[in-house]
């Protein structure tokens, strides 16, 4: 009988471990190559042991995959700096109130929220790397992420805004559940004098486009994390938003580690919070 303590991974999390897009994971699950269970809402869930077993089987040649489903291996990431390691350890050790204080202290030291966001964003990547290589379990990773989300929210709420501040809408691309990068981006937007409309995760492009047409937003910021590997899927999700932004005269900013296409009209690609800050003040 399976233990009630078993921790299940979402499709996006399994895809991140396997280095592919969520569509590939869904296809392998539907073919019976990667075993999963279904939630009451019919969502696929995977155990870490099953994902590891599948990865070993692929490596050993016991499972042959469509080569197009696997991206070309990139260079290994550079080792984390001491500052990033220190912040990763803080994320794991501090509660939300203490983490809130640490964020404020770092803001005082570095002089801007975009600087804080860049180093904390790197710490999040390091946190994910530790989890992927088995140094952390999924509970530790989830707790650290939730504490950070609460600490960042407190910081954002404490930032005052001028009267009639322009509105920025923040959303994750369709199919993407990761919003911590957006939460850090909110600090940068609010420090630059923008009111933030928080749309959040899993945002269908057509729905967001309709909202853009009915809301006087100056900027729409779309985020896609590294699990969003498919540029064509991202283009399909973002094109309605890009068209709506052109119609109403709003700027479209694309952020995160996702594989955004290069041909979205009138969009600005940013790869760091420093670049986001520069786009907001230019």
Describe the structure.
The protein has 282 residues and is of the alpha/beta class. It has three domains: 8-69, Multidrug-efflux Transporter Regulator, Chain: A, Domain 2; 82-157; 167-281, Rossmann fold (3-Layer(aba) Sandwich), CATH 3.40.50.280. The protein is 51% helix and 12% strand. The chain is built from eleven helices and eight strands. The protein has helices spanning 11-18, 22-30, 48-59, 82-93, 96-110, 113-132, 138-157, 180-191, 205-214, 231-248, 273-281; strands spanning 8-9, 37-38, 44-47, 167-172, 195-200, 219-223, 251-255, 267-269. The chain has a five-stranded parallel sheet, with helices on both faces. Strands 1-3-2 form a three-stranded antiparallel sheet. Helix 9 (205-214) runs parallel beside helix 10 (231-248).
């Amino acid at each position: 009988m399976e233990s009630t303590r078993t921790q299940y991974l979402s499709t996006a999390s399994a895809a991140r471990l396997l280095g592919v897009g969520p569509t590939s994971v869904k296809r392998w699950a539907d073919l019976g190559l990667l075993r999963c269970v279904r939630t009451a809402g019919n969502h696929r869930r995977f155990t870490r042991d099953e994902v590891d077993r599948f990865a070993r089987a692929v490596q050993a040649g016991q499972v042959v995959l469509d080569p197009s489903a696997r991206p070309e291996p990139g260079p290994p990431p550079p080792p984390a700096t001491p500052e990033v390691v220190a912040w990763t350890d803080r994320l794991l050790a501090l509660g939300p109130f203490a983490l809130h204080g640490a964020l404020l202290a770092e803001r005082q030291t570095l002089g801007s929220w975009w600087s804080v966001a860049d180093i904390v964003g790197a710490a999040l990547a390091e946190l994910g790397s530790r989890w992927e290589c088995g140094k952390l379990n999924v509970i530790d990773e989830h707790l650290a992420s939730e504490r950070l989300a609460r600490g960042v929210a407190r910081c954002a709420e404490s930032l005052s805004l001028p009267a009639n501040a322009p509105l920025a809408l923040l959303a994750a691309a369709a199919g993407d559940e990761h919003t911590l990068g957006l939460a850090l981006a909110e600090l940068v937007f609010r420090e630059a004098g923008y009111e933030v409309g928080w749309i959040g995760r899993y945002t269908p492009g057509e729905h967001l486009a309709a909202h853009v047409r009915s809301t006087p937003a100056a900027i729409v910021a779309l985020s896609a994390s590294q699990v969003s590997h498919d540029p064509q899927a991202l283009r399909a999700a973002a094109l309605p938003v890009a068209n709506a932004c052109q119609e109403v005269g709003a700027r479209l900013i694309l952020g995160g580690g996702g594989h955004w296409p290069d041909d979205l009209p009138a969009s600005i690609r940013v790869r760091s919070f420093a670049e986001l800050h520069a786009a907001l003040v230019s």
